[in-house]
């Protein structure tokens, strides 16, 4: 019976990592209302695929209508893609690109109840080329699995790479002193 190898556990961890989505309550404590500056609310925020927008409002006073870019600009209600009016609307940002939301009540859109969000892909895209990061901190295997008693179920982590020092122009005496210091440092790190 094959248990979950550490490699597979790491792979699962990597796959599960992008699932950490962020819920953004539109307007924060001011919610989805008249008199809120949503440009200010948007500043500094970045939205990525998997995040959610949460519109909280009184369904008697407001709604959330998704529109296209042109209708967003003109506050037109002629081509509404979808209207939500449950008072607690969660919009899943599943695709990259811009999404446009307005309130279709009266003239609320032209009074500022409009929100454009730009959704980007995964933010954590490390530069390719280094498949194995130098920091080799192997996470413990997830609990819940069967206790692995196999002899090769867990391999010890590889030793840290030696510190690389550039070319130093010094007298032999100082170099030997420096070398001895580095040796002591290395022994201290390993021990
Ligand atoms: Cu409204």
TrEMBL record:
InterPro entries: Cupredoxin, Phytocyanin-like, Phytocyanin_dom. Residues 128-144, 154-164 have a biased composition (Pro residues). Pfam families: Cu_bind_like. It comes from Dioscorea cayennensis subsp. rotundata. One of its GO terms (molecular function) is metal ion binding. Keywords: Glycoprotein, Metal-binding, Signal. Residues 1-21 form the signal peptide. Residues 22-121 form the Phytocyanin domain. This is Uclacyanin-3-like. PROSITE patterns: PHYTOCYANIN. One of its GO terms (cellular component) is plasma membrane. The keyword Glycoprotein applies. Residues 118-168 are annotated as: Disordered.
């Amino acid at each position: 019976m094959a248990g979950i190898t550490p490699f597979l556990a790491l792979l699962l961890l990597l796959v599960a990592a992008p699932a950490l989505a962020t819920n953004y309550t539109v307007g924060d404590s001011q919610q989805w209302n008249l008199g809120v500056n949503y440009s200010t609310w948007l500043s500094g925020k970045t939205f990525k695929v998997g995040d959610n927008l949460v519109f909280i409002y009184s369904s008697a006073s407001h709604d959330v209508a998704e529109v296209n870019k042109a209708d967003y600009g003109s506050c037109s209600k002629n081509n509404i893609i979808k209207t939500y009016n449950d008072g607690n609307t969660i919009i899943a940002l599943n695709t990259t690109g811009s999404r446009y939301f307005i309130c279709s009540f009266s003239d609320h859109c032209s009074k500022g109840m409009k929100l454009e969000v730009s959704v980007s892909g995964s933010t954590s895209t490390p530069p390719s080329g280094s498949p194995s990061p130098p920091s080799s901190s192997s996470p413990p295997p997830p609990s819940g699995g069967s206790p692995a008693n196999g002899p090769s179920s867990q391999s010890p982590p590889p030793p840290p790479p030696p510190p690389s020092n550039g070319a130093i122009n010094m007298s032999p005496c100082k170099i030997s002193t420096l070398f001895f210091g580095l040796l002591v440092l290395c022994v201290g790190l390993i021990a």
